[in-house]
Amino acid sequence: MATRAGPERRVLALAGPTACGKSAAALAIARAHEAEIVSVDSALVYRGMDIGTAKPSAAERAAVPHHLIDIRDPLQPYSAAEFAADAQRLVAEINARGKLALLAGGTMLYFKALFEGLDAMPAADAHVRAQIEAEAATKGWPAMHAELAKADPPTAARLAPADAQRIQRALEVFRLSGRPLSSFHARTYRADPGGWHSMPLFSLEPEDRGWLHERIAQRFEAMLAAGFIDEVRALRARGDLNLALPSMRCVGYRQAWEILDAYESGPAGAPFPMQQLREKGIFATRQLAKRQLTWLRGMTGRRVIACDGPDALAQLLQQVRRIA
């Protein structure tokens, strides 16, 4: 079958930028083909982070089996290598139940880890990170980005000069290993004996970037209305979480945490800077979507569906029906 990524394997993938409609499309595919969904999302793995991640509702998860959601406490990291191992195991288990496995999400490094494999990168080093942060405090992150551009041009090219989190990690990897971060992501398909790279990959991509920006703004507004700030306050109240953790660096959570830090240390009685949070959150989400689309353009063989087209879902279901 066309959906086999290896011997006796029934699996297909659905990717796309944030807010493009992946979740609704995945549910539609799953219902039409009795599939189980394997989440390809580095934020959905965390418990207690529901609103800001647009996590599938309890009703949706009851209607269609979902996997790799709520499997970690926000204190516990989850790596791309762990995802690849978990996804391979889950696909085999789903197929054993006679079901189609649908890998759906927007964490492109997870897809890459599964399709192509990843070399083992050096673990985080608190001392090196502290050095980089100290340098950035003096020089500024744009200067650190310029330093990265000399050591690792491909990685620097896909990062914004103010993307502190990713610039820091890329510089950390280079200083610890002497190798650019991009070299760890440069495995070829020959390194994938399981044939995962041949899995059909459907990609939801907008023809009009403005359409996606409007959806991002609408979704962030909906999150705020649903109690996102209270969700972040509850995470802060635990007392054991901080912005150095991967979970708290997720888009939206980082911006809300920083706004709350400034607000709570500011003058008593000052109004909460909701508009500032709104602007920062929407901007950061747009930047995430831009990075996701850049990753997708590098995935050869993907089957693109214009997610802003009037019949996008019908087109997707028709194409899936041909191979599922």
Top keywords for this entry?
324 residues; globular
The N- and C-terminal alpha carbons lie at a distance of 8 Å
Strand tally: 6
**Overall pLDDT, averaged?**
91
Rounded to an integer in angstroms, the radius of gyration calculated over CA atoms is 20 Å
Strand order of the largest sheet: 3-2-4-1-5-6
**What structural class do the secondary elements suggest?**
alpha/beta
Element string (H = helix, E = strand) = EHEHEHEHHHHHHEHHHHEH
Outline of this structure?
By secondary structure, the protein is α/β, with parallel strands linked by helices. The chain contains 14 helices and six strands.
Task: Indicate the topology.
Layout: E1 11-15, H1 22-33, E2 35-40, H2 58-63, E3 66-67, H3 80-96, E4 100-105, H4 108-116, H5 126-139, H6 141-151, H7 153-157, H8 164-177, H9 181-184, E5 201-205, H10 209-225, H11 228-237, H12 253-264, H13 274-297, E6 303-306, H14 312-323
Parallel strand pairs: 1-4, 1-5, 2-3, 2-4, 5-6
Helix pairs in contact: 1-14, 3-4, 5-6, 5-8, 6-8, 10-13, 11-12, 12-13
